[in-house]
């Protein structure tokens, strides 16, 4: 039976499939693109890679199942890694209640989450002080230092406050663990100065500061654990700056409906 423009149904789909195969990227091109992205983000997963490649090649990218088969065939699928968590809350400063529990932010500048993690270098351990916007998942403040002194944690906070010009930070809740850096007089005074509400974990569970812990995990699991150890503090600072730039501006987030943190912020700014 002649059906679709004089061709049998089987012939039509056969020709269509052949033409489609001529109009999609070659496997080697895809593998090279994956390796190029992983040069900047060694542990970025297949789902995000597929999304990023579809953004670059909207009409040429192969389908999901074929992409996953290619990733398996070329041994490009990731193996799970373990990350480490540390905190020290043994001090005499006042500890605030967890008022962020159950909070679901609806805009940028409503909930910031803070944490400190460490990075091994050839010359010793350095410390990454981070502040992340819980709505956009954007890292809005960071500082890398060779000590856990609160002055460095405060520097990350001041960076976040500086970039938030124009926001009403009196509506902000700042959430952290109960580490001395966040409970000390100078840090609390700075938060009170901008009229932010202060929230802290109470149960010593990573889930009490899940977004901050997740950001730490992404930085380590997708980058640092799979890179050559930085030589020193300055080398680690340059690497960290590149990582955070990629994380904020290029890495899509499932929690953002596959938008990057910067795109999520811009989307809200355009609506507001």
Structure description:
- The structure is a single chain.
- This protein has 272 residues and is α/β, with parallel strands linked by helices.
- 43% of the residues lie in helices and 13% in strands.
- It is built from ten helices and five strands; from the N terminus they run ααααβββαβααβααα.
- The chain has helices at 9-22, 27-40, 46-56, 64-73, 150-163, 180-183, 185-193, 210-222, 233-249, 261-271, and strands spanning 111-121, 124-133, 139-145, 173-176, 197-200.
- The protein is globular and about 65 Å long.
- The model is unreliable at 1-21 (pLDDT under 50).
Total DSSP helices: 10
Distance between the termini: 58 Å
Describe the main β-sheet briefly: 5 strands, mixed
Radius of gyration: 23 Å
Spatial shape: globular
- Beta-strand content bin: 5-15%
């Amino acid at each position: 039976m002649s059906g679709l423009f004089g061709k049998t149904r089987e012939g039509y789909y056969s020709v269509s499939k052949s033409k489609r195969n001529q109009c999609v990227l070659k496997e080697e091109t895809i593998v090279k693109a994956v390796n190029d992205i992983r040069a900047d983000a060694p542990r970025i997963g297949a789902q995000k890679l597929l999304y990023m490649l579809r953004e670059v090649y909207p009409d040429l990218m192969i389908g999901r199942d074929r992409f996953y088969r290619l990733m398996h065939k070329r041994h490009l699928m990731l193996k799970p890694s373990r990350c480490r968590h540390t905190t020290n809350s043994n001090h005499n400063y006042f500890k605030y209640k967890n008022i962020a529990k159950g909070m679901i932010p609806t805009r940028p500048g409503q909930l910031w989450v803070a944490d400190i993690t460490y990075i091994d270098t050839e010359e010793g351990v350095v410390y990454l002080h981070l502040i992340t916007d819980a709505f956009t998942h954007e890292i809005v403040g960071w500082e890398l230092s060779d000590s856990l002194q609160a002055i460095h944690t405060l520097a990350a906070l001041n960076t976040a406050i500086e970039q938030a010009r124009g926001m009403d930070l009196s509506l902000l809740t700042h959430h952290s663990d109960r580490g001395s850096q966040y409970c000390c007089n100078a840090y609390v005074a700075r938060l009170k100065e901008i009229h932010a509400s202060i929230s802290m974990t109470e149960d010593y569970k990573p889930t009490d500061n899940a977004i901050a812990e997740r950001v730490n995990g992404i930085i380590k699991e997708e980058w640092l654990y799979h890179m050559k150890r930085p030589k020193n503090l300055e080398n680690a600072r340059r690497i960290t700056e590149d990582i955070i730039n990629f994380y904020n501006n290029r890495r899509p987030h499932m929690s953002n409906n596959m938008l990057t943190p910067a795109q999520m912020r811009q989307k809200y700014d355009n609506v507001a």
